[in-house]
Specification:
Layout (H helix, E strand, L loop, with lengths): L14 E5 L4 H13 L8 E8 L16 H12 L16 H27 L5 E8 L2 H11 L4 E6 L4 H7 L2 H8 L4 E5 L4
Parallel strand pairs: 1-2, 1-4, 2-3, 4-5
Helix pairs in contact: 1-3, 4-6
């Protein structure tokens, strides 16, 4: 009977996915992973995954500045189906291209800063191979998909430590990943200061 994944070669390291963002929680989780999970003998590969939130989509506006019912319907339909929303699909989408380009440049700069910060932490551990993956989309889906795509042996991520009410309104990326990832998930809480 064939196994679902090929067995690891003798001496082959693990593929450890670490979710990184611009917050201190993910930096703490990465530092903790480097100190406590990664083999000091080498051979492990860290895959730094950053989920760049897609730019916001504003309701399609008609020429009078009133939200188009058709545009709102398509927006709701796309959200229900959990699809990425393509703003160009909305009739009458009114946003200056230079504003959209500026928003996109800012999102890329935030992503680059988060990944660079994580790479600097990893540079202190030359025995660890580091790969990066930046995807656009809902962080919950991006992280779970990336862990499956790279064949992760472990997913490490930080926790913002939201209480019950905040989780109810904002959702919990770490909880979603713990419930839906196909690999083990290690959630590292940052100590209270």
């Amino acid at each position: 009977m064939a196994s679902a994944a090929p067995p690891a070669a003798a001496g082959a390291g693990r593929r450890i996915v670490v979710a990184v963002d611009e917050g201190e929680e993910s930096a703490h989780a990465l530092a903790w992973c480097l100190a406590n999970v990664v083999s000091p003998a080498g051979g492990d590969t860290l895959v730094l995954v950053h989920a760049r939130r897609p730019r916001p989509v504003y309701a399609a506006m008609d020429s009078a500045g009133i939200a188009s019912p058709e545009g709102i319907y398509r927006l709701q339909e796309a959200r229900i189906a959990h699809r990425r929303i393509d703003p160009s699909a909305f009739a009458g989408y009114m946003m200056a291209s230079d504003v959209l380009a500026s928003v996109e440049r800012h999102a890329q700069a935030v992503s680059a800063a988060a990944v660079d910060k994580a790479k600097r932490l990893c540079a202190e551990h030359p025995h660890v191979a580091v790969e990066t993956l930046v995807e656009s989309g809902d962080p919950r889906d991006v992280i779970c998909d990336a862990a499956e795509k790279v064949g992760a042996d472990l997913l490490v991520m930080g926790s913002h430590g939201y209480g019950f009410i905040q989780r109810a309104f904002l959702g919990s990326v770490s909880n979603h990943c713990a419930q839906n990832c196909k690999c083990p998930v290690l959630i590292v809480k940052r100590p209270k200061e």
